[in-house]
Amino acid sequence: MNPLNVIPTIDPNPLPAPYWVFKVLLVVTFFLHIVAMNFLLGGGVLALVARWGSRKPDLGNRMFLDLARKLPVLVPATVTLGIAPLLFLQVLYGQFFYTSSIVMAWPWFLVLVMLTIAYYGFYYASFRSGRQIGRAGAVMVLSVLLILLIGFLFSNNLTLSQSPSRWAGKYFADTAGWNLNLTEPTLIPRFLHFFLAAVAVGGLFLVFLAQARWTADNAYARQLLRFGGKAFMYATMAQVVVGIILLASLPRALRMLFMGDNTAASILFVIGVLGAIGAIFLMSDALRKENVRMAALYVPAVLAVVIACMSIMRDILRDAYLKPFFHPAQFAIHTQWSVLPLFLLLFLGGVILWFVMLKRYGLLTGKRAAT
């Protein structure tokens, strides 16, 4: 079946701002969402590793308790910061995203159910971890697995939204909506890339906690720094390998975008790879010198550049997938100048407020020893 026959027509309602404004907001809000999500998932994974993988059970239990008490806050942060990019995605690519969501209707609907259960699980682990650490650990496993499954379903939906040629076959294979995009060659590498990124950023979460305790409890803070720093380095190393596999799994024409055919994409790719390698060496040097300032300031700064590059590359790749079907010139635009400046001002204020909350929570400063 011709993909053009199954793609819904573009929304006739005009965009309330220029197309490029929505593109920038999509990338920026996705960047913020992915950072919060990585803190959540990576922190949960590392809490479990500390609980059952540490050679020092008392230290591992303490790290688990420390992280368990903070993860519930990251769930609403992840969801709230995820709403904006999802809305901007629907504004620009709704005809693709809505259709793929219908094709995999039931798994997509269950995302809300799984998220609710995971949220309650994180809270249970937070409240019970001091008295029933064994049961809290088991519940934490369930919550982390559910967040992982949600990420896997998102990868299915987003890759399927970029492949209109598969919609009809999948829909008629199971009209009830129990469909996934498991035949997509990039699905597993893409998901693993997302997972390893979360573990790496989760390692930085521990580094921030180490900085917050550096004065009040130096011995424990040094343990947090070593554990989080090593998790960051090993996960980033693995991510570089998986990234190469992901690149190789792309169709040749799309792969070559990052190998010289598209100047901007190629430059971003080089910056991303060199930045990831540079962050590994910076973290290694910070651990060798036990320099928590370097680990909690310079490494995240480099990583922020890497994540920004990857976010833009992701957007370039999506447009390349949809190039035969998606034409931005088709959008009607009627800029609402009376509303747009207020929206941008409130958006900027919200981002600033989010960072203030992180600072008050003890993640961006060493002045407050979190408990």
Task: Spell out the key features of this protein.
disordered C terminus
What does this structure look like?
The protein has twelve helices and no strands. Mean pLDDT is 92; it is low at 365-371. The N and C termini lie far apart (59 Å). It folds into two domains: 18-184, no CATH class; 185-321. Helix content is 76%, strand content 0%. The protein has 371 residues and is mainly α. The protein is globular and about 65 Å long. Helix 5 (133-161) crosses helix 7 (187-213) and helix 7 runs antiparallel to helix 11.
What is the structural class? Answer: mainly alpha
Helix content: over 70%
Q: Give the topology string: H per helix, E per strand.
A: HHHHHHHHHHHH
Identify low-pLDDT runs.
Answer: 365-371
Main sheet attributes: strand count, strand direction, barrel closure: none
- Please state roughly what percent of the residues sit in beta strands, choosing from under 5%, 5-15%, 15-25%, 25-35%, 35-45% or over 45%: under 5%
Q: What is the tally of helical segments?
A: 12
Q: What would you say about this model in short?
A:
The protein has 371 residues and is mostly helical.
